[in-house]
TrEMBL record:
Coiled-coil annotated residue ranges, if any: none
Domain CMP/dCMP-type deaminase residue range list: 26-157
Domain of life: Bacteria
Listed name of the protein: tRNA(Arg) A34 adenosine deaminase TadA
GO molecular function term, any single one: catalytic activity
UniProt xrefs under SUPFAM superfamilies: Cytidine deaminase-like (SSF53927)
Database matches in Gene3D superfamilies: Cytidine Deaminase, domain 2 (3.40.140.10)
Pfam families for this protein: dCMP_cyt_deam_1
Signal peptide from the UniProt entry: none
Organism: Frateuria terrea
InterPro entries linked: CMP_dCMP_dom, Cytidine_deaminase-like
Length: 187
């Protein structure tokens, strides 16, 4: 048996139609709104779990988008936030997005990061984290386990220069989770 030496993760082409690289996404609601729309479309198309995320430059340009790809890619780390971070880092050729004079970066996510994506957020090089639904929404409306987070998880991020704002379009974000939870699908 050959030892695997390569990894290939992709987003489906429709993501490039929903996420518009020509416009500027200004303000928290436009940014989280895109993440929620990606989550909604991912469920509608049965392409993965009910989660979306996007990395923006401070000027409003979209750098990269992400959706949950765990089941289609057979990859437990392929969460929306991870996909968005990895694609943004590849696009900017920078493993820390805000390194040097790159500017400031924002991650918008349809739901509070799980323990894995929380850890990734510490190192990704973002300056702001914008969140739609809360972790308790994810766990009450679906069967997903968010994993253990430190009690002071927001303070830990803010100590590292990452501003956290949550409950942005929370009801819209909750609606996507509820649709998924009630649909009985698991992908
Ligand atoms: Zn995650």
């Amino acid at each position: 048996m050959l030892l695997p030496l390569q990894l290939h993760l992709t987003l489906p082409p429709w993501v490039g139609e929903v996420a518009d690289t020509r416009r500027r996404y200004l303000g928290d609601e436009e940014r989280v709104g895109l993440a929620i729309e990606l989550a909604r479309q991912n469920v509608a198309r049965s392409h993965g779990g009910p989660f979306g995320a996007a990395v923006f430059h401070e000027d409003g340009r979209l750098v990269a988008a992400g959706i949950n790809r765990v089941v289609p890619q057979t990859c437990s780390v392929a969460h929306a936030e991870m996909m968005a971070y990895m694609l943004a880092q590849q696009r900017l050729s920078s493993f820390r997005l805000n390194a040097g004079d790159n500017g400031r970066f924002i991650l918008a996510t349809s739901a509070q990061p799980c323990c894995q994506c929380y850890g990734a957020t510490v190192w990704a090089g973002i300056d702001e984290l914008l969140i739609g639904a809360r972790g308790e929404d994810v766990e009450s409306l679906t069967t997903f386990d968010e994993g253990p987070l430190p009690d002071d998880w927001i303070a830990q991020l803010e100590r590292r220069g990452i501003a956290v704002r949550r409950d942005i379009l929370r009801e819209q974000a909750r609606a996507v989770l509820a649709d998924y939870g009630q649909g009985g699908a698991h992908y």
